[in-house]
Amino acid sequence: MDTERVKVLLVDDDEDDYVLTRDWLAAAQGTTFDLDWVSSYDEAIATIAQCQHDIYLLDYRLGDRNGLELLQAAVAEGCAAPIILLTGKGDREIDIEAMKAGAADYLEKTQLSAPLLERSIRYALERQHTQQQIRAQAELLDVATDAIIVRSLDDKVLYWNKGAERLYGWQAQEAIGRNPNLLIYNESLVDQLLEIHTALKQTDTWQGELHQVTKNEKPIVVYSRWTLVRDRQAQPKSILVVNTDITEKKLLEAQFLRAQRLESIGTLASGIAHDLNNVLAPILMTAQLLESQMHDERSQRLLPIVVTNAKRGAALVKQVLSFARGLEGTYTNLQIKHLISEIRQIAKQTFPKSIEVQTNIASNLWSVSGDATQLHQVLMNLCVNARDAMPNGGTLTISAENFTADEHYARMNLEAKAGSYIVVTVRDTGQGMSLETQERIFEPFFTTKELGKGTGLGLSTVMGIVKGHNGFIQVWSELGRGTEFQVYLPAVAVVEYYRQTEQDTPYGNGELILVVDDEAGVREATKTSLETFNYKVVTASDGIEAIATYAEHRDRIDLILIDMLMPAMDGITTIRTIQKLNPQTKIIATSGLAAQDKFHGMTDIEVQAFLAKPYTAQELLQTMKQVLCSQPVGC
User: Could you tell me which residues carry 4-aspartylphosphate (predicted)?
Assistant: First the structure.
């Protein structure tokens, strides 16, 4: 304060007191005081409102009014400068009221002296400066996004910053003085809190993840740092807690781990499905062939059973593959509202009358690019699950609306990308699911239904189809309150769609076909079927044998049917080698894996068509006829 000039306003109706105060302040050492004087309450109010002084000296007696009233009025008007109340005779009650009202000091005129007045003013200004620093620091703490809490040793909130207000929903005035354990913790965390206090006693610090709740009971996860604060005598004084909200981060981690788990299951499922397809293919083809050759009553009765069950097995494998890799379909631009109308009709006609079916479709709904049959399967599967979840009746609601995901939304959902979507929501008012069940519903063969009432492939197939359409699924469910599935599909322009009709089974014209497959059953069944329909066939069990056979018959072979996954030399390498011998060779690739993987790693080779195992004789013959006739085939 050696270089400071302090502006002082004295409010006193006695001019003699003004003169005495002026002389005292003029005699002060090291500080220059500029003293102004007003003698009435009203004049004082007007002057204080201008905020031009560093400190105010108020006499208690001001005619009909008093200095305590003036003090209260000045503070109410927002006066931030220190105020010292002066009185002719000490009064303890006035002293207490003055301190409560915000006075920096209370001085008796009868005991006042120049040094005492100067010291009181200096202390008041220093306290104000300290308080300003504390307020500035508190403002910095309030700007922080973290929740900063100071707890007493007997579990009372001493400080609660704005970050804590934003995170938990409790205002500072609601939280201060209360037990934070009752505000933001569940009873299940009592043991963890005991561990924290034990760690504080041993090391003065603790940090880790805590599951907490907000004022409206919303669960959150925070990364929490606890520090035991000690006084100058090294005795524990309070506990500083800094909490960072990591709820979104934990949700993203859970999504990532779940996606990894499903990917691993999908990889395993695709490998098993490939082997099963090689088993089913010759069974299906041989049974179909025998149907056309054996006409006795017993064969005609038993062979359709073999064919039907082989197809059922193939359908199950196809469902597994749709989960693992996705399935290729006839993708056209279509309106989801048409599919929803079909599903609504089916549900109304076949579901129990105790289930009310409602639809809500946006009038300007965008279109999607997809396979109508597969998307029909998705909606039907979700509606059937909803029906099963409402054994005592309820409401099934199917809705569709447009949705635009921004970059923030995309960051929140690992499977989403910024852009336009159609959102189809299937909601029921049924039994709901636990969190544990929700974590596993998309896994193949997981089911909560009774034995014999579900394969556990329905929702895994739904997931595979939706992913194959570059979409994603969100699920909400709560026990006793129902379940909601939201299917997000990328939006495109509106174009009507069509469905292909099945063609008649064509015969060959004696063409020579090279069949390459490491499975003997597949080779023989394919060979027999082709020969039955007027083709000639040579076979090879691996890529090396295929190249040798082709070299021997290259001028006569019209088409090669080759499996892509074989030991020793795989299909891709074999095709590359054969095409070096003759780039014009017509080739149909086959695989037990999903159709969308057919050209993986095949960017430098050309095949005319692809068949996913197990295929029927009709599918094989139609594809071959199209390739041999040089007609385009959807590969």
Answer: 59, 563
Q: H helices of 144-246, where?
A: 162-168, 172-175, 180-184, 190-203
Q: Is 555 helix (H, G, I), strand (E, B) or coil?
A: coil
Neighbours of 554 (CB within 10 A): 13
- Provide the β-strand partners of residue 402: 422
Q: Which tokens in the block code for residue 363?
A: 């009038």
At 89, is the pLDDT very low, low, confident or very high (cuts 50, 70, 90)?
A: confident
620 in Cβ contact with 526 (< 8 Å): yes
Contact indicator for 428, 389 with CB cutoff of 8 Å: yes
Cα separations in angstroms, 399 against 31, 89, 361, 405, 486: 78, 81, 5, 18, 9
> What's the 3-state SS for 487-544?
EEEEEECCCCCCCCCCCCCCCCCCCEEEEECCCHHHHHHHHHHHHHCCCEEEEECCHH
Closest CA to 20 of 116, 122, 126: 116
CB-based burial of residue 238 (10 Å sphere; 0-12 exposed, 13-18 middle, 19+ buried)?
middle
First and final C-alpha spacing in the chain: 89
Q: How many helices (H) and strands (E) does the chain have?
A: 20, 24
Give Cβ neighbours of residue 163 (< 8 Å, ≥ 6 apart): 141, 142, 144, 145, 146, 147, 148
What strands lie across the sheet with 609-612, from one edge to the other? 536-540, 512-516, 557-563, 587-591, 609-612
Asked whether the whole model's pTM tops 0.70, one would answer no
Reported as a single tens digit per residue, the pLDDT across 221-261 is 899 999 998 887 888 889 999 998 888 777 767 666 666 66
- The helix, strand and coil proportions of the chain, stated in percent and rounded to the nearest 5, come to 45, 25, 30
Preceding peptide of 614 cis, ω within 30°: yes
CA 424 to chain CA centroid, Å, is 18
Measuring CA to CA, which residue among 321, 338, 329, 411 is closest to residue 592?
321
Cβ-based burial of 271 (10 A; exposed 0-12, middle 13-18, buried ≥19):
middle
